[in-house]
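Target protein
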Amino acid sequence: MAPPSFRSFGLLLSILSGRGAAQSPVIPPHDLGCVHLPIIHSTNVNHFSEKRGVQLMLANRSDVAYYAQLSIGTPPQPVYVQLDTGSFELWVNPDCTRVSGSDQLFCERAGRYDSAKSTTVESLGTTKTLRYGIGSANISYVTDTITLAGSSAALQGVQFGVASTSEDTFSGILGIGYGSGIATRYLNFVDQLAAQNATKVKAYTLALGSKDAQEGVIVFGGVDTSKFGGPLTKLPVIPADLAPDKVPRFWVDMQSVAISPPNQASKPYAGSNMPVFLDSGSTMTLLPPNLTSAIAADFGVAGPDSNGFFRIDCAYTKMNGTVDFAFNGVTVKVPYKEMIREVSGATPACFLGITPSSSFTLLGDTFLRSAYAVFDFENNSIWMSQAANCGSTPAALTRSTDLSSIVGACTTTVSAASGGSASGIPGFASGSGGSGSTSGTAGGSQPVSAGVRNTERSGLLLLYVMAAVAVGTAVLG
């Protein structure tokens, strides 16, 4: 897990449950030289649950993660794994009996890999314990074939971990950060795609998709111009020796954060110029306490609750407004709806999707759902634009230099599902237009970690926060 990784912000969620494993997504054929996989939100009942309408009054931590399906072994065994740009290794088979409630139901539907049923598995005879803020996994390393859905290509001899035991973990993880010679001593998944010529360019593009869409796409070795609008802006990755935590992650320089309330001028925040890293394995965005408090104040909240969360009026989810993250040459506008964590139940509750942290600054899923990001390993760069959705056109890159001339096919618009204004809600000084959703039209080894767990009960509401904080530098493994 990416440290610090707010992997779960558990909440009372009504989900549809049933028997059987998750359904496999339908994937069109791949363009030669790239591999594209659907990113499935764990709330998507078309994949993770049969439609039997059983309401679970349970606090689950699996509801806000993003998954891709791999087929492992010979014959292939489908397994869903959580996508994590902030870690480096692939592992599977959490112990579902060590989690409870809807986490356990989700865990059981994500699929399992049985090495005894594969004719191509090789045991490496090495083990490791991966520790997280909440939970751990004891893994044994193996190599096996991984078949990519929608492609005739199969990656041979890919190294990954198989959990023998685990505590409080509800899914395997596909770490898609830096690999061989940087964060691991072996070729990780991204390395293998390039080494076995499944991709021509060592890069991938990430479009998580909005909360309403419940699906996105990751394209290894290519781009999908129907998932963003305008050009891609190149941002250099801060080298590990200059990064705040000295760990090789996707650190970039952020110039500012601003808020654009409905029908008001944009308001920038002082002290919001800082390095941040992009972490798809983190539900929340982490910013310094003073900055987080200033943003929360503009949502009408005087201060955090006893657990550090900023509870806000759910009316904001229907308002045209954005929180704007500016980098050198590009600004990503995050609609209020995407920035707010919504908790369903008899009495709905909403929380700001930013958590104060004095140790780390990261942009998690509450930011990434509104950004289209290219992770360019060849040039140690992130290419970024505003996310949108005007179709599906994944295509291979011939060379990484092509990224400078690619333009998104969507006309980005930021609009709320239903209108709204700041009238009657405190916390606004001045600001202009934003959105409730973004749409478009055609045109290795885990660093040592430590964690914290905060809970709050209000009726049937139970909130969990997990933080896995890296200590020191990455250890090759």
In short: Residues 2-27, 47-63, 416-437, 443-475 have pLDDT under 50 and may be disordered. The helical segments are 45-48, 101-109, 189-195, 289-297, 336-339, 365-368. The first helix runs from residue 45 to 48.
